[in-house]
Predict the 3D structure of the following.
Amino acid sequence: MQVLRFCICLFSVLPAAQGETPNRLPDLPRIWNATAEHPLPVFKLVRYPKSGPMGLNNILWAVGNAIHNGCLRAQELLRQRQAYVAQGAAPLAFVVVILPPLRKELGLDQKGAMHAYGEVFDLNRQLEFSLKYRNCFISDTKQWEILKKTGSVALTKDAATIKNYESPHFRGPNMHRVYQALEMSTHLRRKYYEPCVKKMRARFHPEMAYTAIHMRVEDDWVHHCNKMDHLPKPQKIKLRSKFKIFRYCFGAAEIAKIVLNTPVLANMSRNYLLIYAEDKVDLNLLSRPKTMRADPMKVWPPEIAVTNPITMDCFSDNKASYTERSIISLFMASDANAFVSTKLSTFQAGVNILRASRITPGHDRHSYLYDGDGKNFRFATSDTTVITQYSGAPPYVMNAT
């Protein structure tokens, strides 16, 4: 059914002809004139075989850049092709941007196992947004191979293969549209997300509200932040001037204290969802500072209900990839009434873009930084940078103190 829906969507809409309203896309029969020589629609591909290194949101930004730059390339190729069509030298051809695959596990190696975009996200929804706002076809490798086997299309040589991913950045062109169209796949929702939310609700206090707290306490971050906190003074001053960053390492106990000292957060909910990779935290690591050796689950007072996806056995089948686990955390954090994180995180930026894209009247989505209070670090501060940029209008933000 998923493949059929994609085929229908793909062949029932095409780039607008000259003089037509861009978002009113004509039907295929009105554009494609089959001949004995060219009985099938001809497609050329713009491929993005790599999605770049690092975590989930870096990968998504590479997807966003592929849509932006690939669709610009597609429009240029279409204009060139139309000139040949006008001269009778070639049949009309349409260009499809093939989204980069998503690496399954964290790391720099691009040779490991990959997810096709449609395996973990809703490809049809992203396609609908791409057609609506970019007038551009997109697909992924897996869906395109299935589509080819139906015998419904003819292919020429690839139009372009972009071997190196564009440097991803969350403030890239129209990135908010990519996140606005972001929905997990039906398979992922049913297998992991819905059971995990049900377990979370069973562990929480009866009130529906909950706060998601993203803690950077994993071993790889400890190594990095410890190194940055011990830079020579001139380098520290330079970084503070550029990024307004005064400290990198925050332990679980300090994060908990900051959150509990912030009235608006303390009064909002007694339910806390902790977002961190528990399986990547070794509290006995010798290089871990003493301030970062507290167990994130054990630093809260007894009246606070805390949990996280690993503790809840959301992935007890041991089959979920790192990317799939990150997607579940991304959407659980996005759905929270409040979100607390650090400014030094791509996950924080991705969650906030997703939250901003889902702001509706009367439903504000508050975001806070536990490391945004200068040198004192007594309270969490309101984080409005991404929310304001991508929601279309400044949201109502409560004073954190």
